[in-house]
């Protein structure tokens, strides 16, 4: 009986995490929509705003997909949309001609900087209330 109770508690904790994620994602989408972004768009801009350990500010699509938890095909569509909006640029990877590098444009960096406090405020509010 104790094992069954522990399994149920574990399942309830998992469902609580999923519910918090869903609520937070909705709040982020709502807040970022005013700036023409969704939560996934912002996550990509946020990753691209960071310098890699080697000081470079561009990332390969595969590196981004690992950080934002999107499939490569979904990320490719998202990056294409951001590029169409002038927020990022894509180019061939110098080390591997099969790879694609993505970098923020000046417009993308400015939008990221403007929206960063909005995103962080939503995260603070949602994760503090749990």
Automatic annotation (TrEMBL):
**Alphabetical list of SUPFAM superfamilies matching this protein:** Winged helix' DNA-binding domain
Q: Which Pfam families match?
A: MarR_2
PROSITE patterns per the UniProt record, alphabetical: HTH_MARR_1, HTH_MARR_2
Q: Where is the HTH marR-type domain?
A: 1-130
> Keywords, A to Z?
DNA-binding, Transcription, Transcription regulation
Q: Which GO terms describe its molecular function?
A: DNA binding; DNA-binding transcription factor activity
One GO biological process this protein is involved in is: response to stress
Which PANTHER family does the record match to this protein? MARR FAMILY REGULATORY PROTEIN (PTHR33164:SF99), TRANSCRIPTIONAL REGULATOR, MARR FAMILY (PTHR33164)
Q: What protein name applies here?
A: MarR family transcriptional regulator
| Source organism (scientific name) | Streptomyces resistomycificus
The organism's taxonomy opens as:
Bacteria, Bacillati, Actinomycetota, Actinomycetes, Kitasatosporales
């Amino acid at each position: 009986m104790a094992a069954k109770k522990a399994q149920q508690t574990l399942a309830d904790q998992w469902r609580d995490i999923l519910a918090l994620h869903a609520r937070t994602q909705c709040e982020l989408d709502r807040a970022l929509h005013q700036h023409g972004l969704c939560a996934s768009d912002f996550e990509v801009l946020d990753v691209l705003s960071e310098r890699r350990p080697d000081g470079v500010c561009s990332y390969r699509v595969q590196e981004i997909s690992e950080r934002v938890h999107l499939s490569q095909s979904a990320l490719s569509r998202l990056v294409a949309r951001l590029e169409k909006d002038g927020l990022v640029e894509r180019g061939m990877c110098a080390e591997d001609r099969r790879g694609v590098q993505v970098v923020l444009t000046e417009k993308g960096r400015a939008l990221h900087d403007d929206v960063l406090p909005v995103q962080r405020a939503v995260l603070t509010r949602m994760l503090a209330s749990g």
